[in-house]
Amino acid sequence: MRAPPLALRPTGFGLAFLLVILLTLIGCVNYGLSLGYGLTFLLGGVWVMTATQALRAARGVRVSLAPPVAVTAGGLADFSVSFSGGAEGVLALTLRGDGAQAVGAWPLSGGVSSGTLSVPARHRGPLSVEGALRVSDRLGLWRVALPAPDPQTVLVHPAAEQGAPPAPTRTVAGSGDGAQRTRGDEEFAGLRPYAPGDSPRQVSWRHVARTGTLLTRETDAPQGRARLLDWADTAGDPEARLSRLSAWVTELTAAGLPFALHLPGARLPVDSGEAHALAARRTLALHAPFPQAVTPPRRPGLALTAAPARSLSLAQALALRGTLLALAVTLAPTALRAPVWLTALVAALLAHAAWRTRPTRPGTQPLAPLPTWLLGLLAVAGGAALNAVYGTLLGRDAGTAFLALLVALKTAESRDVRDGRLLILLGLFTTSTHYFFSQGPLTALHTLLCAALLLAAAPGWTAAGLTLTRAALRRAGGLLALAAPLAAALFVLFPRPEAPLWQLPVQGQATTGLSSEIRAGEFSNLAQSDAVAFRADFQGEPPASSARYWRGPVYEAYDGETWRQVRGGGSPASVEPTGPAQAYTLTLEPSGTPWLLALDVPSRVPDGASITGAFQAVTFRPVTTRRRVELESRPARLGRQEDANRLAFNQLLPSGQSPRARALAQTWQGLAPAARVDAALNFLRRGGFTYTLSPPTLPAQDRVDAFLFGTRTGFCEHYASAFAFLMRASGLSARVVGGYQGGESNGDYLIIRQRDAHAWTEVWLPGQGWVRVDPTAAIAPARLSAGVQTALTQPLATAALPPGPLAQLRLRLDTLQNRWNDLVVDYDGERQSDLLTRAGLGGVGQPAYLILLPVVVALTLLPALLVLRRRGRPADPAAGALHDLSARLRLPRAPGETAADYTARVSQARPDLAEPLGRVLLAYHAARYAPGDPAGALRDLKAAVRQVRR
Predict the structure, then answer these.
(1) Burial (Cβ within 10 Å: 0-12, 13-18, ≥19) of residue 821
(2) Edge-to-edge strands of the sheet including 733-741?
(3) Looking at residue 597, what DSSP letter applies?
(4) How far is it, in rounded angstroms, from Cα 406 to Cα 382?
(5) Would residue 716 show up in a list of annotated catalytic residues for this protein?
């Protein structure tokens, strides 16, 4: 009595879907894309949820198959399919016979539905059809094989010959009155009771008026006037002769004439009417020998049948249209960062594919897919152009742009189900690449929308009618909501490796703007950007604005135009702390550089980082994604004991450059070292210098002279470079330090933006070591106390201007962004380990963790199972109770089977349940049909169901 267990297996599309999940997971692990874990686990949850949906749909589905009444060779055998149950699934039926195959797919809605599946009937004679039945989820990721329907055999009649000559006039032997008679329309033969289907003209209305009883007149004719269809009157091969006889049968039946049929080995007596014509066609169909069956090449199925190479079927066009909409939303961010020509090409390819989905008018040719040679040419040319723009095809920017081009090219040639599903997978993979550029809340919302649209479009390639509609989008959103608890659990508990799987940097333009060399104009360009460079969160009070020097690259090599970094050698410089340490956390935006931008002077750096001989905090891995690091700094004397070779190197100047500045500095050589610094600062204060973002261009030769004695206008890099030149010319060791200065307070943390980029000078003084000197502060003191924006308009201001309403709104949004970074983006292996330790699990791989992980995963699946169970149960309470009974017995109801028929069938198989099933039937009828409040009857029904033993 128990139904056999169901075998659940992933489809080919389901395996490819899982492969995409694994690829995105590997990318998240290698590049530390924390938000990418969320999308990956969400898609993994969808993969699991659809397996549950497929199983539940398969358990509840009931299918019946009815053969056609009459089939003609060369036509189609239309099998009627009736099915019910199995909500949120797709029923797929495959019928095979006579070397032909037909596949139909219909969405399951839980109610009773029907469809038609047509198998080509190529030859006359018996057509044996065998079927295969399976149920899948609507995405087509999983399939469950159901017991095959019983084999069906239909009789294929010979096709009537087109343009056949008239039937012969030869009649059956016998003539005249008194001879044997047959049905005809000449003479009255008597009355008989009326039967449904009799013509009203044959009804004897006179007898009806007299007796009130319907009677039908019967007529006949002499048998000698009945026509004879004889095998001997035909010629040619057997199939041609049978085809002509079939045409004569059709002719005489349409004329209402009686006929007899004589074949070798078979004779059909004289008669007329549709029943006689059907008997004649059956006789013709069963004439031996039957034609030899030739198995043609296998062709695709019918539900989404592969159309000719130049056109799309209606179902395919609708599915492709929804897929193109989802891909357009997915590829939209690429237009913001890719070259304009690539955006135009992608848009043109998508438009071409969309144009192919439009309905065509009769007599017009549909738009064909682009030829393969043209697609290959566009791919090669596009790749070469991108390589010329980016210098590679493997980096972040070039790789994602090339991927967008490939996806667009695929849409231009898509023509069947396989292509459509490949587009869905490519769209999901492309969605995950957006995290290389941003992991903010807006990106999270956009990728969630992309995933929902792609999942809503995927069912269109599983069954006709499941197009991208609001209902489909709601179902996709519901599926993602069911997968969310599992995704959240895996996001928190899945191990986060600290090291990448392979060393392939994510190439892209740096967003901090600091580079390994500096020349005039570098920092003034950065000062015009409001983009965030990093955020700083202090455990105590942050330092004063004038002390917020965020140390970056140190430039020591000078060629007269450019300052560059050098790798210092020799013995390390001394560090002598002069104050308490201060701990803080930096959230660095992607920069592509190794600098951690610590406060002067860093004293402790995280694992995987170090402090160089120039006191820079650097990491061994460039900051290619948003990274959270914990640092410690403290006031200190730097380099009181410094390597002599380094000091000598920091006094070098290019020969022949800026003689006026060199001569000025040489006049200070008789002063004490500290006095030389004061002299240079006084020269700047009294020299009429101006702080500006748009200084005039300086010449390559004698740049310092042109600045100090000519333009006298510049930004921080001008002043730092000129001051270091003067110090070296006066006999002191000096270098330029790049980084950021200041920061905007936003509650309990600081925002350091691109505009806060700054350059200052370090001068080595005997007995003091490296001393920071900021010559910009001598020109615009507000740069330190009020920020760059205030310093540009009010150089002597002592405080920043209060933020306006727009600035306040931006700060509130940044607070949300920072909170998002803290909870989601910056959740890495270290923070996971801390969380697990605080929870008492001891960390990844510990026994408590290994026990808890499967338990938590199982608990996250319970809400989804409860929701799916409620969806599969009928809304009507009485029908729901009967559904519970069928689930309890594991015996589903057949389509259209009443409650009485169902209980009778079960009672016949299980006589021991006859009595409790009788009580269930009485309670069911009372709950459904008895007048008054059905609440009491429903309680009795539920109690009766519970009393039925399994």
Answers:
(1) buried
(2) 575-577, 636-638, 769-773, 757-765, 733-741, 549-555, 598-599
(3) -
(4) 9
(5) yes
Per-residue pLDDT, 520: 65
Q: At what angle do helices 12-31 and 34-60 cross, to 10 degrees?
A: 160
SS3 910: coil
Are the beta carbons of 779 and 773 closer than 8 angstroms?
A: no
Q: Per this entry, what is the length of the chain?
A: 950
pTM of the full predicted structure?
0.76
Name the token pair of 245: 């006889």
Helix axes 441-457, 314-331, angle to 10 degrees: 170
Task: Please classify residue 394 by burial: count the beta carbons closer than 10 Å to its beta carbon, then call 0-12 exposed, 13-18 middle and 19+ buried.
Answer: middle
Secondary structure string (H, E, C) spanning 814-832? HHHHHHHHHHHHCCCHHHH
- Three-class DSSP category at 68: coil
The pLDDT confidence band at residue 311, using thresholds 50, 70 and 90, is: low
CB neighbour class for 712 (10 Å; exposed up to 12, middle 13-18, buried from 19): middle
Residue-by-residue DSSP string for 244-297: HHHHHHHHHHHHT--EEEEETTEEEEEE-SHHHHHHHHHHHHTPSSPPPP-PPP
In tens, the pLDDT along 828-850 reads 887 888 888 888 777 777 788 88
Q: Tell me the two tokens of residue 675.
A: 């006095």
Residue 718 appears among annotated catalytic residues: no
Note if the bond before 916 is cis, omega within 30 degrees: no
Q: Which of 419, 758, 826, 883 is catalytic?
A: 758
Triad 909, 910, 911: Cα angle to 5° = 110
Query: In this structure, which amino acid lies at residue 771?
Result: V
Taking each continuous run of H as one helix and of E as one strand, the counts in the chain are: 29, 33
Strands 598-599 and 549-555: antiparallel
- Measured in whole angstroms, how far is the alpha carbon of residue 733 from the centre of its chain? 59
Active-site residue identified among 123, 537, 716, 756 = 716
User: What is the C-alpha separation between 904 and 118, in angstroms, rounded?
Assistant: 34
Write a three-state SS string for 666-735: HCCCCCCHHHHHHHHHHHHHHCCCEECCCCCCCCCCCHHHHHHHHHCEECHHHHHHHHHHHHHHCCCEEE
Read off the pLDDT of residues 673-717 as tens digits, 9 standing for 90 and up.
999 999 999 999 998 998 887 888 888 889 999 999 999 998 888
C-alpha to C-alpha distance for 712 and 705, rounded to whole angstroms: 10
Give the residue with greater pLDDT, 162 vs 867: 162
Which of 778, 785, 814 is CA-nearest to residue 801? 785
DSSP annotation string for 205-247 = HHHHHHHS--EEEEEEEEGGGSEEEEGGG--SSHHHHHHHHHH
Of 774, 826, 883, 940, the catalytic one is 774
User: Tokens in use for 352?
Assistant: 């071409």
β-pair partners for 1: none
User: In the prediction, which pLDDT does 821 show?
Assistant: 82
State whether residue 463 is helix, strand or coil: coil
Phi, psi for 745 (deg, rounded to 5): -75, 135
The rounded distance, in Å, linking the Cα atoms of 95 and 611 is 73
The H or E element spanning position 923 is helix 914-929
Q: How far apart are CA 715 and CA 719, in angstroms?
A: 7
Residues 325, 468 contacting (CB under 8 angstroms): yes
Q: Identify the residue whose tokens are 């030739």.
A: 294
Instruction: Tell me which amino acid residue 1 is.
Output: M
Judge whether residue 509 has pLDDT over 60.
no
Q: How far is CA 808 from the centre of its chain?
A: 36
- Of residues 893 and 782, the one with the higher pLDDT is 782
758 is catalytic: yes
Please, how many CA atoms are within 13 Å of residue 111, restricted to the half-sphere of its CB? 4
Cβ neighbourhood burial of 132 (10 Å; 0-12, 13-18, 19+): middle
787 and 800 Cβ atoms separated by less than 8 Å: yes
- Whether the ω angle into residue 129 lies within 30 degrees of 0, i.e. cis, is no
